[in-house]
Write a structure and sequence with these properties.
heterodimer, A: about 300 residues, mainly alpha, MetI-like fold, two-stranded antiparallel sheet, 14 helices, flat, B: about 425 residues, alpha/beta, D-Maltodextrin-Binding Protein, domain 2, 18 helices, about 15% strand
Chain lengths: ~300, ~425
Amino acid sequence: MATTVVSRKASRPHGIEARRRRVAYALLTPGGAWMFVFLVLPVAVMAYMSLKSGGVLSGGFRFTWAFENYVDALAGRQTFFLRSVIYAGSTTLGTVVLSYPAAYWIAFHGGRFKSALLFTILLPYFVSFVIRTVQWKFILADHGLVLGTLKDLGLLPEDFRVLSTWVAVVGGLIYNYLPFAALPLYVAIERIDRAVVECAYDLYATPVQAFTKVIFPLSMPGVFAATLLTFVPATGDYVEAEVLGGPTTRMIGNIIQTEYLRQARYPVAAALSMVLMFGMVVLTSLYAKLIGTEDETVAAAVGA
Amino acid sequence: MNAPIGGSGPGALPGLLRRRLTRRGFLRAAGRAAGIGAVGVSLPSLLASCQPEEGGGEVDVKELFSGPPEGHVEFANWPVYIDKKKDPETGERYVPSLRKFEEETGITVTYKEVIQDNASFFGKLQPQLQAGQPTGWDIIVITNGWEFQALVKNGWVYPLDTTKRPNFDAHATDWAKDPPFDPGAKHSMVWQSGLTGIAVNRDLVDAPITKLDDLADPNKLPPGSVGMIEEDMPDFVMWNLGIDPQTSTPEDWKVAAEWLLKQRETGLVRAYYAQGYVDDLTNGNLAVSMAWSGDILYYHTWGGYQNLEFVVPEGGCLIWTDNMMIPVGAEHPVSALTLMDFYYRPEIATMLQEWVLYMSPVKETQELIRKDAERAEERGWKGYARKLYETAESEYLFPTQELLARCRFGRTLRTDEEKEEWDRIFVPITEQA
């Protein structure tokens, strides 16, 4: 009898475990397939491309383990990487500072209009972002609607301009990435337990103290998500710099674009993209280590 | 008769309008190669050196073009580079010349304005071409730059059956029949051609702009008010410094690069444009800009921008051509060739030219445009007639020998080594930190 029990015990859990494992893998399949198709495969193709050599005038490119592409790609490009990080950093700061009050107000005082108010934040983004960006060229034209008027009134010097300067590029980036900060911030602030805020006031906290000691720390998951969602794409962005910028505002995205679409140096462009991607992974991991917690990373994912 | 489209744009939505406004703005003028050699001026001898090496697999041309038309053509072209008209009944915009082709031949055409610039369009096709897969297009329009060279050299376009284009034989200009970058027009047929010169916004500039150095003169122009066309500027600057780009050497390239760097240091350059310089000209951000003739003519004639003026600088212009080609793997080569030849019928070429305002590869268009003008006048369409007369007399559409003598084609980059050297010298100008 005992032997049968033992044998049963030994066999049954084994079968269940195997099945469990199979189920677990089966459940992983859709997500895994998604990751494979949309992440692993493209990156693999890009890595493969980055190691090709050849030229468009000699039949195209062949895979040759051409690691020198990376050397080629990085030579003299530090300025552009640095500039992109600075612009993206300013963008992140700008979007968070601008959208925090809005998100806060909607979450705490939006009442039954919350959804409608959120919708108004999103509304401009129903128009293609290229068109929106290009419209800024009209609005900010040197002798246009705004600057022209101010110049006519004598409030600005005649050769003042915004377009083709870093102000226009960072401004355009902030404008375009605003909802990516506003929405996760809103989600995080909305989730703050009002009772905790009440407690702070009950304990004689001033409004400023309540904000800095209670509300802001509790909204950190939102800030974290907002930062990632704006900083990462803004670093690789090139549209604002292309449309609103000038010769002195080119970002690394513009360099990659030029390499790929104008000079047809596809492997070098791929190598630059790889470097940019891994640079971002390292930067964001560091950031997550320093500021984020696991909780916040999850929240970031949820907020996204 | 195709109507002037000046006022009938795609509506008031500025975003859309701008798209249309950039028009041949998109049509960059590589002008890197070859060109209109045989127009009679001194060009042919200089251009003799820029013939591409033929390559690629052996295609039996006769066999390929022997069948009956397949009944359909997939045509890729640049934005706003064909005649258009609004159907008065349905309000739908259509292409009169293509409709005529469809009615006459029974061949249907899918016309798509998908080429924003040569290099990026080439970039999209390149992987398929290299892998020997069809691109889905039967006709593509490529400027005479390195992209053109690559397509021919790598055998990525079909050679054409030169015995099956009667209109081309009868009506093509000499330069279109034997372009130096494609001797005998064996791989391509010219769609349109144009000049790269200087556009001046007279509202913003009083000083006379007559030469290249004016584009780098802070005494004449305010900071950030000069537009440069990235792709054309090396050749344009070289030619204006007295160097013939066609025969130029890397040493000459460095001279041009030096000028461009000096210009950059003046702070006058607003941007190095791939396209879209016209937007900045029309909304007053640019006082002067390198420009393509058709763009400026079009705005001046049909767009109501009387303040824009096209100037041929003292040092001369760049010239370029856009060429129809049949990519390897095209499903409908016979129909494609039929369509290409159709555009060499004088009345069809006239429809096209009156609308796009670039140089036509067909001999008779000037005469036909004049006739259209007379007809318009008889019907009492005064403004329209005046504009057609202006078109027919435009020096930039029907250049004189004297003007052509002052125009050159850009450098033809024939090998990867040359292209690398070129990029090494000119890329740092736009990539200065």
